[in-house]
Task: inverse folding
């Protein structure tokens, strides 16, 4: 299981500072897809669920299972 490298995330976030997207959770999802090459909502959920901060981000959005994350991602992409 991969662990979130928060130092790399901070660098990624700094590089993306000019983007309109300022939601830390959305940036984290993009980071996990690009840095770890994780595209499966189930893999991403497992990584987030094993991390204290990641788990808090999931709970804040009422994402309790991988299927909830999949729904969240689908809604985000359909906008």
Result:
């Amino acid at each position: 299981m991969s662990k979130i490298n928060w130092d790399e995330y901070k660098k990624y976030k700094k590089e993306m500072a000019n983007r309109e997207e300022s939601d830390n959770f959305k940036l984290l999802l993009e980071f996990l897809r690009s840095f770890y090459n994780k595209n499966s909502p189930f893999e991403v959920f497992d990584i987030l669920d094993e991390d204290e901060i990641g788990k808090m981000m999931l709970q804040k959005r009422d994402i309790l299972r991988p299927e909830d994350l999949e729904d969240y991602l689908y809604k985000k992409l359909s906008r």
In short: The mean pLDDT is 88. Helices lie at 6-15, 24-35, 41-49, 52-60, 66-77. The radius of gyration is 12 Å. Residues 25 and 57 are 7 Å apart (CA to CA).
